[in-house]
Each structure stands twice: as C-alpha cells, then as structure tokens.
Amino acid sequence: MHYSKKLSAFAPLRILFLGLLIAVLLGSCATTADAQGPAILNKQDFKHYAEYFNRMEDENIAQAIPNSESWEWMEENIPLFEAPQENFEEMFYYRWWSLRKHIKETPVGYAMTEFLVERSYSDKYNLISCALGHHIYESRWLHDPKYLDQIVHTWYRGNEGEPMEKLHSFSSWTADALYQRYLVTGDKQYLLDMLPDLLKEYQWWVDNRQREDGLFWQIDVKDGMEESISGGRHVKNVRPTINSYMYGNAKAIAKIAALKGDDAMAKEYEERAARIKELVQEHLWNQEDLFFETVKEEGGFAQVREAIGFIPWYFNLPEDKNPYHAAWDQVTDEGGFMAPFGLTTAECRHPDFRTHGCCNCEWDGAIWPFATSQTMTGMANLLNNYHQDMVDKSDYFTQMEKYVESQYYRGRPYIGEYLDEKTGFWLKGDQERSRYYNHSTFNDMIITGLVGFRPGPGGRFEVNPLVPAAKWDWFCLDNVAYQGNIVTIFWDKTGEKYNKGKGLHVLVNGVEVGHAEGLERMALQMHH
C-alpha cells in the first residue's frame, strides 16, 4: 500500500493496517525479551564500536557493568541505528556505551550517576538529581526495564522507603519523563504505583517554590545553571525552567490520574496546568524581545534571551500561534543562539555574553549539552505539533549535525560538561570529573526527532523523520522495544540498500505496517 498523501500535524490517525493487526496478534502477549530481534540490521555488525571504545580509554572507574561486559549489555538492551553519515552512527553507540558506565549497584537497587567521580554535594551513592529527567528520557529505550524501574525507585524510595534527601536539590520534570516512558513500555502498573510519589513531589514544589501569584521561582544553581546572565547563585527569579517543568508535571499527573480512572484528580491537574500556561504566556513572554524570559525577583524582565526560553516547547506549553513562534527565529540567527559548534545558552549579541570567566560552570553563553537536548527536543515538538515557518527540517538537521560534531575531543568520541561555542573545545576536557558527563540526551533525539518515532497514548504512534530528503539516501533504526514489540523504521531512496522496496517503511515484529514514498509523516495504530 502506498500512502504518499502527506498528513498534517493534526490529521486524524486514520491509517490502519491488516499487517499490523496480524503482527501484534502474534506478538501482543510477548514481553520485549520474547519478541523477535531486529528485522533488518545485524547486532554483530556494530560490536566493533564497543571494542573501539573499550580500547580508547583507561577504565579507572567501573560500576555495575564494566567495559568487559559493555557489548554483551548493549546487545541485550539497545536499539540499533545505521546511517550513511558515520559520525552520527558512531555517536549513537558511544552514547549507549557511556550511559552504561553510570548504572550503579546500590544496597537498594540500581541507581544512575551523573559524574563517575565522587562529588562533595552529591547524595548517598554519589547521586545528583539534576539530570534525572534526561536519564529517564534516554534510558526508556533500554530493552530491560529493570534498570530504570530501580533507578527511579532508588530516588523516591531508597532512603528507608522515603525519597533521597537531595531529590529536591534541583528542579524536576520527572512526572513528565515517567509518563513519556510509559508511552514506550506500556507498563501502566508501574506508573500508577508511582503516582503517590509524584503527587507528593509536586506538592513539595508548590509549598517551597510557588509564589502567591501562582508562578514558580528558582535559584539558577538549583536549575543546574550557575553563573547565568539573568540571575545568580542566590537570586529567587521566576524562570521559564521550573514553570515549564511544573506545567509538564501537572499535564502528566492529569494523564496518569485519567489512566487510574480518577476523574476529579485528572481535572484538578489539567486546571493547574492550564493556569501555569496562562501565567507563563502572560508574564514570562517579553513582547519586545519576542521571547520567554526570566522575570527578576523584584519584578521586570532580566532583559536577556537565554536557551531556557525554548523549554516551554519541550512540554508543548505555548499556544500554536504568533507571536510565540517568533522565538525560534533566534536559533538560525548568529546574533541569537547559532554558533559554529551548536546552540549557545545565552544570545551571542548580549553585552554580558561569556563575561563570567571560565570553568566554574558558567551558563552565560557556552554550549551545554544539557540545554542542547532540551532545546532540540522542544524543536522536534515544534516541527511535529505546531504550524510555523521559523524553522524546518534542515534547521533541525544542521543543529543535530553540530551536536554530533561537538561530542569529540582529541579526535575521539567524548561527552563532557560544556564547550566553547566557537572552537568546540571542551572547557573541562582534561578534568577527570568531566569525562562521560551524564547530563543530557542524544539517542532519544535520534529516535524521536531525527528518525521520528513518536509513541502516543492508546497504542497510537507516528513516524515523522526530520531528515531532509536531500541529506541521506538511506538509514535504519531497528530493534526498538515498544510495548512488547520490536519496531523497525528504514528509509531507502532507491530500494537498493535494503532490497525491500523504495521509500520509508515501518515494520512491527518484522511485518510491514506502514509505507510512504517520501520522508513524510505516517500515523499508525497498534491493536491489542
């Protein structure tokens, strides 16, 4: 069947396939472990990456899965990706290989670290909650759910049944992340079991960070964003970060409550989300700068565009209309956020850009992968869910390409804390603390953004690649665990790479369920 008619962002999900029905009848009761493996790619073809990464370094810190077991772990747990642009492919495997380093065994179950080296300000087991949302978004694609199941439980229940002492040391979008994970695994029971923990956490932020007007404040450091232009280490500003996170968490809790059948709770949290959205649009949108900006404790805008102004789109918060779309004009502007090695954390034209010195965690312009992953996830949402003409697929691809290119140091794959926007030099590159810094996502963006596999509720999913047609003649994402099934997505412009027909193809458990002539959106439905 050919579905060459392009679907608009909000087209009804109307493409149903008999093949999918058959595929899922075969595989619906199977766990991911029972489902068949990859349909197109061969796992062994990618083993050389793990072997190279193992040779590349001195393994001076090993946690639950040492380098000697890295490939065995990857073989069992990760999706596979093949692309004609080798650095994209290499980085995909490198990021899984380095993520694995941070899985740690503790007396209360698995945990995930941010730094491999011990940090003085960390919690028990060297844990830091700052990037927990990123850890969940990235790790939700692992085949074995036990890692993330336990990592989250360690944070929320690992302190004699209570949350870890420093769970609230940093702003959190965990409720949102866990709902997004549920869309991948379909494990409703785990999500409902976490609901009381998430409600308790939400209330903590209300009690400790909400002002009388309903907006939330935060200190830069507690957002993991020290030395910014807009604030400081002790300033209680109203920031787009925490307000967007609380919106995302409220929306997620409403959806979890609906899954539970608690209509009153669902309604309450929908109303909370709607109120935050209204406040953010009314008070954090600077109409002069056409940007979501920080509002100072004493009132008035901080008068600087910062990457945190894109975070509302990470949660699809802004209305789909002007003037909000205009903010995205800044990602293609060299006076805005567009630099040779990626997206800066503050606008390049600002007089205070990169004025805070170096190497004490400045967020005054240098590129932080933490922020890049938030902005790029927001940009993918913009391209999928909004009608705008500020950015397109080629802008997304350009930034993904820079993100890939930035993750090298001395010619080898490397992920650290932050880097110089012009030279690509890692600012703490020679410090042991910076190596394998687990503070961002990359593979989640390859899966949901670049290849465009976007899971939705009720077994609905979309495939909408953000690869410009002229860029790659072929690519394949395979072995994706999705609700007990294995999804494969491949593009073959000529039909000669995979010999399974031209165009874009989607398979579930090896059975084709969707096909399009070009790189365009397909809406599909799983049947249970």
Q: In this structure, how is the largest beta sheet organized?
A: 5 strands, antiparallel
Give the DSSP E fraction (strand runs of 2 or more residues): 5-15%
Which consecutive residue ranges, at least 5 long each, have pLDDT under 50? 1-34
Mean pLDDT: 93
Instruction: Give, in spatial order, the strands making up the sheet with the most strands.
Output: 1-14-15-16-17
Q: What's the β-strand tally?
A: 18
Shape annotation: globular
Helix content: 25-40%
Alpha-carbon Rg, integer: 22 Å
Question: Would you give an account of this structure?
Answer:
With 528 residues, the chain is α+β, with helices and mostly antiparallel strands. The protein has 14 helices and 18 strands. The protein has helices at residues 18-27, 47-56, 70-77, 86-101, 132-139, 146-157, 174-185, 188-209, 240-260, 263-284, 311-314, 369-385, 393-406, 443-450, and strands at 80-82, 103-106, 109-112, 217-218, 237-238, 285-286, 291-292, 338-339, 342-343, 408-409, 412-413, 453-455, 460-463, 474-482, 485-492, 503-508, 511-516, 522-525. The strands form seven sheets. It has a five-stranded antiparallel sheet with strand order 1-14-15-16-17. Strand 14 (474-482) and strand 15 (485-492) form a beta hairpin. InterPro entries: 6-hairpin_glycosidase_sf (IPR008928), 6hp_glycosidase-like_sf (IPR012341), Glyco_hydro_37 (IPR001661), Glyco_hydro_65_C (IPR005194), MGH1-like_GH (IPR054491). It comes from Echinicola rosea. This is Glycoside hydrolase. Residues 1-35 form the signal peptide.
